[in-house]
Write a structure and sequence with these properties.
By secondary structure, the chain is mostly helical. The protein has one domain: VKOR domain (de novo design (two linked rop proteins)). The longest helix is centred in the N-terminal third of the chain and has 46 residues.
Length: 235
């Protein structure tokens, strides 16, 4: 197959060409083959984070809307039982009556209604193949990091202080953690957070870290409510 000089190679395949040179490949560089390999290193992770942002943003927005409607109904009728109040542990009503449910002076779901749709929109752009500028990735990283910190503060408050869980909130926790994780992986792959870009091996194995994170939260819930957790599995 004919080869093309490095000087004539399109800019989107130069990273692949350079990588082959570092590996000691002294043969001709097939630009068409390099162009075919380039999207594997860049487009696939971008679309993956786009899918997670879109799905997580939509799910989070729905959860926030449901919780806000239940909160309004509870304010109108103190005897109202929210849709996610199932038993003494899974008790949204208990949580909604605490100050932690309105940290900024208004119901926390309002924050979700303002932020989750933004994440979903960014995810749609990424899925559509839009190349976001670096400042947009920094914004995504900052937003998902703040969301992560807030979600984990709520987790601690639910387990340690309030002693109850909100099923809808837990769905939001899952979404926020996934959005933060995939955004961070994409930023590390692209070198947006400083330092050299992470290698492809990191991206292939990052799912184990996310699974361990979720498992740690499940363990914390079981350790906090052992009798309730045992009842769920019939023990």
């Amino acid at each position: 197959m004919a080869t093309t000089p490095l000087s004539a190679a399109p800019t989107d395949v130069l990273p692949v060409v350079a990588a082959r040179a570092r590996e000691g490949d002294d043969g001709g560089v097939d630009v068409m083959e390099a162009r075919h390999e380039a999207p594997t290193a860049e487009v696939v992770p971008q679309r993956a984070v786009g899918a997670v942002l879109l799905a997580g943003g939509l799910v989070g927005a729905v959860v926030a809307l449901v919780l806000l409607l239940d909160k309004i109904a509870l304010l109108e009728d103190p005897a109202f039982v929210p849709s996610c109040s199932i038993d003494p542990v899974l008790a949204c009503g208990t949580i909604m009556k605490t100050w932690q449910a309105s940290v900024l002076g208004f119901p926390n779901p309002v924050i979700g209604l303002l932020t989750f749709p933004v994440a979903a929109a960014m995810g749609a752009l990424l899925l559509g193949g839009v190349a976001l500028p670096r400042w947009a990735w920094w914004g995504l990283q900052a937003g998902t990091t703040l969301g992560l910190l807030f979600a984990h503060w709520l987790i601690v408050q639910s387990l340690v202080v309030i002693g109850a869980l909100c099923p809808w909130c837990m769905v939001a926790w899952v979404a926020v953690i996934a959005m933060f994780w995939f955004t961070t992986v994409a930023d590390l792959r692209a070198g947006n957070l400083g330092g050299a870009p992470a290698g492809p091996g990191f991206a292939r194995r990052h799912g184990w870290g996310l699974a361990a994170w979720y498992l740690a939260i499940v363990v914390a819930i079981v350790a906090t409510f052992p009798a309730w957790a045992a009842g769920l599995v019939g023990l």
